[in-house]
Design goal:
heterodimer, A: 195 residues, alpha/beta, Aconitase, domain 4, 7-stranded mixed β-sheet, 32% helix, 17% strand, B: 473 residues, 5-stranded parallel β-sheet, 16 helices, 19 strands, 16% strand, binds iron/sulfur cluster
């Protein structure tokens, strides 16, 4: 997993609540057997018109979105299915962090395992960030993981929560399986006790 | 019990039993008793195992099935696209190579993962059960702690039979009173979603309690637990009781003889201690419940079927209002109007929410001696081959066919629309599945979620109909 320390980038505003995993990556793209290429179909049904051409009204297709690594979405982002294809698609497009007022449990857990940082902020901070980004898409937001802060011009500064373990893994670029495997002895003992 | 013993909820009892290691400031290492896998969310996990040179630690605690991308047209079992074919072939190869039991397409034990687990008796009280699928919450109906995981976690469980988990909070949903005729388990859970919203139980495990929950059969309890995820909870649980034990006794994988008696004695302890507290409680008065239906694009956008849809003014919060308006636009519906009488194109009776034998009996009860309305396509898709055989033994298939409905092979079918069964753009469907998200049942398709009774009534009327009008007729 890629390390995450500090990220400064312009952002894509998507002020929609309850964006579900079927919107992030529709089920018809789940027939893949690897993790690659899903970024092309991120938000597919909003992003492309019937004839397959890019929908000029969808924010991701606006030239200002190019190169953005932060998505500011509405509340309860990532509800719905457990498909890890959702963070794979977001990371595939180029996002490294999502800012929202709340995330669905499984999405959050999946995102953290893919170097994609869920940044949960208060409704007030969320509103101020949206108001900073929407009129000026070049506005840069800085997300600093060690200090757990998000900053933007105009004096916007706020902290965000993350559990110590996930933070540690992101900072070091560790994946959690290695950590789990280190408990082999305890797991074996547990299995023996129960049988 | 001595007064010094901590009072525990059902969830806490199962959780505590499965914590292998709990280091301060770290997530718990939680042992998993049953790992169910399917073709869509497992391939990358096996690739990960191979890349690290790891084995599956406990193939004996792992069971695979094919359900999501499988076709449901009779006699055309292998006519699917190359990608789906490759996915199924990969599951077959992975199962063989790692020694995992697979209920492949065509196997008489095959079916939707959340239907076959209980059927085979793999799902048991007190177990921890995971699957790369959010509706794993279904298995909580047996008093198991069951939840959906991502593909990275599938790999973790394959490799270590454990998961890193933070202890969630607890949430009691108590359903008291009595269900009125025409009101089913599906209406209870749709009412909960409408009440607390799709993020209402985020971070929590729900325990369903109350006289109405106790009165439900196992199929109904599974319907309720299945959609816990639609209310934001990763898991839903119901304490096991005689109804649970009667369902399980004699099934393939449950203990037999003296071991069965011992197991039942153990399982009887799996209940929330009197006086134990939950982090949150919501009470639903069943006497006031009506058949429910959703009008919007998430399962929280639901209402009693006789009522009118909200209007923009119903929402104070601007982002909720925006979400409502967006949903109305996608659904092409008029705020403030009734849904009753809305013409529909498709009825889908199936999915891990409502494809069990009791669900099919409910639907058949409405369709018996009646015809599906002209121009309405009605699909009835049993959840498993067991369900299909049982339905055919009872003659339900004939009732469906006589009414003009399609009787299909088991699978996820139009619930996820990645297998050849899907809505066309603009079509309206009444569905017994669990998600009405934009495009969920096919690009541009529009879904009203409802119970099997309401879905069958809509099939007959060709429009959204209160099933009670047909039940009394
Ligand atoms: S029936 Fe639908 S919700 Fe259930 S497992 Fe299949 S796709 Fe998922």
């Amino acid at each position: 997993m890629a390390k995450f320390t500090t990220l400064t980038s312009h952002a894509v505003p998507l002020p929609v609540d309850n964006v579900d995993t079927d919107q992030i990556i529709p089920a018809r793209f789940l027939k893949v057997t690897d993790k690659n290429g899903l970024g092309d179909n991120l938000f597919c049904d909003w992003r492309y018109l019937k004839d397959g051409s890019p929908n000029p009204d969808f924010v991701l297709n606006e030239p200002e979105s190019r190169g953005a690594q932060i998505l500011i979405a509405g509340d309860n982002f990532g509800s719905g299915s457990s498909r890890e294809h959702a963070p794979w698609a977001l990371v595939g497009w180029g996002f490294r962090a999502i800012i929202s007022t709340g995330f669905a449990d499984i999405f959050k857990s999946n995102a953290l395992k893919n170097g994609l940082l869920p940044v949960e902020v208060s409704p007030e901070t969320h509103k101020r960030l949206m108001e900073a980004v929407q009129p000026d898409r070049t506005t840069e937001i800085t997300i600093d993981l060690p200090s757990q802060t998000v900053k933007a011009p105009g004096g916007i500064e706020s902290s965000f929560p993350i559990d110590d373990f996930s933070k540690h893994c992101l900072l070091e670029g560790l994946d959690q399986l290695g950590y789990l495997l280190s408990f082999e002895d305890q797991i074996s003992r547990y299995e023996q006790q129960r049988t | 019990m001595t007064s010094t013993m901590k009072l525990k909820t059902l969830f806490q009892k199962v959780w505590d039993e499965h914590v292998v290691v709990q280091e301060a400031g770290r997530p718990a290492v939680l042992y998993i008793d049953l790992h169910l896998i399917h073709e869509v969310t497992s391939p990358q996990a096996f690739t990960g195992l191979r890349e690290r040179g790891l084995k599956v630690r406990r193939p004996d605690k792992t069971v695979a099935t094919m359900d999501h991308s499988t076709p449901t047209l009779p006699k055309s079992l292998w006519v699917i696209d190359d990608q789906a074919k490759a996915q199924l072939a990969q599951l077959e190869r992975n199962s063989k190579e790692f020694g995992i039991e697979l209920f492949a397409l065509g196997d008489r034990r095959n079916g939707i993962v959340h239907v076959i687990g209980p059927e085979r008796g793999l799902t048991q009280p007190g177990k921890t059960i995971v699957c790369g699928d959010s509706h794993t919450s279904t298995h909580g109906a047996f008093g198991a702690l069951a939840f959906g995981i991502g593909t990275s976690e599938v790999e973790h469980v394959l490799a270590t039979q454990c998961l890193l988990q933070r202890e969630p909070k607890t949430f009691e949903v108590r359903v008291d009173g009595q269900l009125m005729p025409g009101v089913t388990a599906k209406d209870i859970i749709l009412a909960l979603c409408a009440k607390i919203g799709t993020g209402g139980a985020t971070g929590h495990v729900i325990e369903y309690t109350g006289s109405v929950i106790r009165s439900l059969d196992m199929d109904g309890r599974m319907t309720v637990c299945n959609m816990s995820i639609e209310a934001g909870a990763r898991a839903g649980m119901i304490a096991p009781d005689d109804t649970t034990f009667a369902y399980l006794e004699g099934r393939d994988r449950v203990p037999k003889g003296a071991e069965w008696d011992a197991a039942v004695d153990r399982w009887r302890q799996l209940r929330t201690d009197d006086g134990a507290t939950f982090d949150k409680t919501v009470i639903i008065d069943a006497n006031k419940l009506e058949p429910m239906i959703t009008y919007g694009t998430n399962p929280g956008m639901g209402m009693p079927i006789s009522q009118t849809m909200p209007t923009s003014e119903s929402f104070d919060d601007p982002s909720q209002r925006a979400a409502f308006e967006k949903a109305m636009k996608y659904m092409s519906l008029q705020p403030g109007e009734r849904l009753l009488g809305k013409k529909i194109d498709v009825v889908f009776i199936g999915s891990c929410t409502n494809s069990r034998i009791s669900d099919l009996r409910l639907a058949a009860g409405v369709l018996s001696g009646r015809k599906v309305a002209e121009g309405v396509r009605t699909l009835v898709v049993p959840g498993s081959h067991d369900v299909k055989r049982q339905a055919e033994a009872e003659g339900l298939d004939q009732i469906f066919k006589d009414a003009g409905a399609e009787w299909r092979e088991p699978g996820c079918s139009m619930c996820i629309a990645m297998n050849g069964d899907n809505l066309e753009p603009g079509q309206y469907a009444v569905s017994t599945s669990n998600r009405n998200f934009e495009g969920r049942q096919g690009k541009g398709g529009r879904t009203f979620l409802a119970s099997p009774l309401t879905a069958a009534a809509a099939a007959v009327a060709g429009e959204v109909t209160d099933p009670r009008s047909l039940l009394l007729a």
